[in-house]
Amino acid sequence: MKLLIINGPNLNMLGKREPEIYGTQTFEDYFTKLQFAYKDTELSYFQSNIEGELISKLHEANDTFDGVILNGAAYTHTSVGLGDAVASISTPVIEVHISNTFAREEFRHHSYLSKYAKGVIIGFGLRSYDLAIENFLMKD
Ligand code: DQA
To answer: Which domains does the chain have, with CATH numbers?
Structure first.
């Protein structure tokens, strides 16, 4: 099973950024732990602060990965283009968020991605990514 994690803007700042919301762990440290925990799964990771790069990465992932785990971060709430990119590929995408976006500002309650996602996992901290992997590993 080949899975790609795509993280959007400001998620490169995890560990330093608003730790009361996002925790103190860097994504790189967490990703190393994930690779250890899911040794039989080929996990890849891409992060960008640039909307077009996230869109291009989704296109590249089409048919080359079995699944994508996407945290669009702020672009989740603003980007028709990112939503269209999710819709345009046949590889299933699970949308994840670290924080419970519904318990935060109203503008975070809407996602341009959810409609096209296989499912959405919100608010379990970095464990949201574990849960998405678990779902991809489940036999349907
Ligand atoms: C986030 C939630 C978004 O509202 C925010 O813009 C982020 C991170 C999360 O993982 O909780 O950057 O996607």
So the answer is: 2-137 (3.40.50.9100)
